[in-house]
Design goal:
There is one protein chain. The protein has one helix at about 55-75, and strands spanning about 5, 35, 50, 80. With about 90 residues, the protein is of the alpha/beta class. It has one domain (about 5-80). A two-stranded parallel ribbon has the order 1-4. Strands 2-3 form a two-stranded parallel sheet. The protein is globular, with a radius of gyration of 15 Å.
Amino acid sequence: PLGIQLAHAGRKASTARPWDGGRQLPADDANGWATVAPSPVPFHAADPAPEALDEAGIAEVIAAFAASAVRSERLGFELIEIHAAHGYLLHQ
């Protein structure tokens, strides 16, 4: 079967490539963006604090996962794995 993994990195998102240091990039960096998480606690003390999700933000994340699953099925994926470990958003 052809599968796909869906994930949201939460507070671990917006990072440089590992070979470029892997540090978190601030939202005003050309390659960065604002991160979201269940609370405004950064992944590392030196990282920018994420925006804490409220009920509307949680609903947006749920809708995005659902829309991604629909698109994945439409594209022919037979298996969908939701990544909910290793500090990603659903694990947080």
